[in-house]
Amino acid sequence: MTDNRAPRAARISRFPYLRQDFTASLVVFLVALPLCVGVAVASGVPAELGLVTGIVGGLVTGLMRGSSLQVSGPAAGMTVLVFEAVKELGLPALGAVVLTTGVLQVAMGLLRWGRYFRAISVSVVEGMLAGIGLVLIAGQLYPALAAKAPDSGLDKVAGLPGAFLHALSAGQAPASLAVCTGTIAVLLLWKRTPARLRVVPAPLAAVGLATLAAFMLSLPVSTVEVHGLLDSIQPPPLSSFGVLAGVGALGTVVAFTLIASAESLFSAAAVDRLHSGPRTEYDRELIAQGTGNTVCGLLGALPMTAVIVRSAANVQAGARTKASRVLHGGWLLLFAALLPGALGYIPVPALAGILIYSGAKLVPLRAWATLWREHRGEALVLSVTALSIVTVSMFEGVLIGLALAVVKTAWEASHIKLDVVDKGVGPVDAHLFGNATFLRLPKILDSLESLPQDRPVRLDLRGLHHLDHACRTALENWAERHSTTGTEPVRMMTAG
């Protein structure tokens, strides 16, 4: 009699967590499917390209080393930037931008720059996500109202009152708004349903119920346009790389690279806190993300980042190895190959509801309130970054946030203390302690100019840790002009 236990034991020893990873992959697939489609539609590209990016995130990035349980794909956080890039550069150039982004990420990983992304101000990153969330919410309210969204973030916000007023008289708007509102309601209330229903992820349940309601009730709402997977894949022509010579295109590449890398590595740090398995190798993860984006660029698809929603679902579903995320990419490929026509039944306002909900989660209201109580400077950086993204653009907003964070840090590092010892007669002793930089010059000079001019002054600089050129020059100029005629000049004492 043949004993089949030995081969079975060998398979179990080789893939000890296959059952857990298989189950988790199905959960992640069901979470990723509506998000991939929604992000693509909101980015102004064919819905199938969102699936392509999800497939690459699973089958390519998922196989590589870095973060074993993190799941990659199209992210809501990149939606606004992709939409602006497609509008300004055209869809054919998107592939060139994404491919270049991927190459830069791989280069940064090889140069071991991944760890430095952890030094980016958390307030800037949260402000960036908050700004994206606000623009995303404002932009998706238009398809929820069966209206066309303006191009800029500020116009999106400013045009909302008019869009709501117009919706009151528009024939399609009430049904569209009802589908969007119902989708958001399902997302909010799904966690209160019985446990046997919660086996289905909330995003899939919300989109599925909205699709069923629109079909059964014959609601007059727009649905996703289906082009076919192969028809949607358009590798960037060589001519599209010429666009990258422009300053605007280069700025877009830099923004893609910084934001995709920062979001992926911050997500990796968050995922590491959710499980006790191997920790993230940041440089390898950056190489994995870059490789995935290079492939996405070659296919003309959306850029990818690691996505915390899918990653958290992966961990919570019991995934133990990278097999779960690879399998999830396989399920997306099967769906795109076998059931592409199913996308054509999905109502656009349902996807808008998914993205409005996702955008709201990007706005850290609780974190902002805590920062305002404890670190108002950080709260200011977060707020300015977010508002700059809404009012100007993504790239300029992030640069403004980074510049403000640097100025804030420099200001806080420029602690300066002036101790004056005045006995009423004889020399006045002034001692400076801390870091003397140009940022503190007004405070230093105001204090020194209040010293008596008719008595000798001894200025002791030996307590300074740092004295920059601007401050030294200003102090020397003050010393030259301070004393009145007949009074001993200011004496400056420095270390060494």
From TrEMBL:
Domain of life, per lineage: Bacteria
Residues passing through the membrane, by range: 22-42, 89-111, 123-143, 163-190, 202-221, 241-260, 330-360, 380-407
Gene Ontology CC: membrane
Location of the SLC26A/SulP transporter domain: 18-385
Topology within the bilayer: Multi-pass membrane protein
Cell compartment(s), UniProt: Membrane
Zinc recorded as keyword: no
Keyword Transmembrane helix attached: yes
Alphabetized UniProt keyword annotations: Membrane, Transmembrane, Transmembrane helix
GO annotation, biological process: transmembrane transport
Principal localisation: membrane
Name of this protein: SulP family inorganic anion transporter
Species this chain originates from: Streptomyces pluripotens
